[in-house]
């Protein structure tokens, strides 16, 4: 490990701030580039001299280029993580979710950085995994601007791998949950919203019949894998799913939440969101072959930690 910082774009966000903690614990210095659109200063230990925060936009090419100078590796997490936000305003989210990625590629090339971990998404498969475990070779079917931007980003990292010797570790995260996931927008991650509403006794809205399923993965288990991606001696080609090959329906999630908090507030069922994926389940074979996967934190344990119980 060198003393040079790891650049984390989106480092003040949910996943990025846990990654910051994990890297600091291993002795790294981190430089964070974040526009604080959903990320927060309070997620970060800014009194630690090994943490530097640059407040700004990944769509600003010159700023990203300056931020990359002197870094040893990049974790590119900055994006508008809400799928629905990209449906509502594709032009705006494209700036963060695609132009930002291209700027990171160029900044790395100029700074001579090879290693990057990219937060892609299960969303690139669209509904193609319907009911089955999705392997990395499952045909891609991006249904939303969010998914199209992530898939395009993957192709660009592959171009820079072939053309400029980049070492991209491309993870397709399934649904990540845990403390610090911001529940404040209606488009926030479902677990953060349900948990917050459950503890405050506010009504819960399920979009659809609640039988849609997701492969929920606990954030600290995820950042363990991201650190491995930064450190691994050689990088194999091809994206890697991050999920458990296990699914939970929203109705089952509500049941688990009820066990952690006691009685739930009223739950109503509203029409499904357009572009919403029905079933999402990761084949984790490639993940298990390439990484030391930590013992998965069970859903109920993760929910209890998220609620501080
Ligand atoms: P988050 O919203 O908490 O984190 C995203 C961070 O990026 C925030 O701190 C935000 O302020 C920052 N950001 C957004 N646009 C920016 C811009 N233009 N310039 C600079 N910073 C910007 O969400 P998260 O769940 O931590 O997501 C992190 C990454 O993982 C994202 O790329 C997301 O698409 C991806 N991902 C998340 C999940 C999940 O389930 N949470 C699943 C798949 C992929
Ligand atoms: C999530 C991530 C996305 C990631 C994808 C990978 C967020 C905000 N989105 O998208 O970045 O790429 O996983 O799999 O982290 N729902 C309700 N009620 C609510 C909120 C949501 O019923 O109040 C439903 C949604 O309609 C959806 C399910 O819950 O069916 C999951 O929604 P959400 O948490 O937003 O995640 P994804 O769309 O799967």
From TrEMBL:
It comes from the Bacteria. Its EC number is 5.1.3.7. Residues 6-243 form the NAD-dependent epimerase/dehydratase domain. Keywords: Isomerase. It is an enzyme of class 5 (isomerase). Pfam families: Epimerase (PF01370). Coiled coil: none annotated. GO terms for molecular function: UDP-N-acetylglucosamine 4-epimerase activity. SUPFAM superfamilies: NAD(P)-binding Rossmann-fold domains. PANTHER family: BIFUNCTIONAL POLYMYXIN RESISTANCE PROTEIN ARNA, EPIMERASE-RELATED. This is UDP-N-acetylglucosamine 4-epimerase. It comes from Pseudomonas graminis.
